[in-house]
Write a structure and sequence with these properties.
Blueprint (H helix, E strand, L loop, with lengths): L4 E2 L10 E2 L2 E4 L11 H16 L5 E10 L3 H4 L3 E9 L3 H15 L3 E3 L3 E2 L7 E7 L2 E5 L4 E4 H14 L7
Antiparallel strand pairs: 1-10, 2-7, 3-5, 3-6, 4-5, 4-8, 8-9, 9-10
């Protein structure tokens, strides 16, 4: 497997309506502050491996203020909408379930959203040849499992010892 993927052919369907998962960022538990996307990446990787999915697909994110969680927040909150282009609808159900298990609240199926690239959608994960890729630099993508492994190795290599 290649160590990096440069300029991948991201999957996008301009001006189509797509369903997704909405995450109320302001409602997430503090332990996910600034790192909630890792849970999304892990969920996609688990799904791709369990289904042996080999087609190309891209998971997109778009953020905006939302009133969809008024029952939980008593006011509008910042939400990120996740839309999977190229993945079957069943993935969204699994993603929503995984996120609800982890976050406990602030996750819901979204209404249909019309996709316009100029609205500020950002690709956060890309699937190609059965591997989940995450963006490391502007046009450089790395396999999800490799990036997670590198972080774990870095932690282990710099763990303090009795001599420190």
């Amino acid at each position: 497997m290649a160590k990096t993927l440069e300029f991948p052919d991201l999957v996008w369907k301009e001006q189509t309506a797509a369903y997704g998962v909405e995450v109320g960022i302001d409602l997430l538990p503090p332990e996910f502050d600034g790192k909630w996307r890792r849970t999304v990446e892990r969920s996609l990787d688990k799904w791709v491996r369990s289904k042996k999915f080999t087609k190309s697909a891209t998971l997109w994110m778009w953020g905006t203020m939302s009133s969809n969680f008024l029952h939980e927040s008593n006011g509008p909150c910042w939400s990120e909408f996740l839309v999977a282009v190229g993945l079957p609808e069943a993935f969204l159900t699994d993603l929503q379930d995984d996120l609800l298990r982890s976050f406990r609240k602030g996750v819901r199926a979204s209404e249909a959203i019309e996709l316009f690239r100029d609205d500020g959608w950002a690709a956060i994960c890309h699937v190609q040849h059965g591997t989940v890729w995450i963006q490391e630099d502007a046009d450089i993508w790395v396999p999800y499992i490799d990036k997670a492994g590198r972080k774990r190795e870095g932690i282990l290599q710099h763990r303090p010892t009795k001599d420190d």
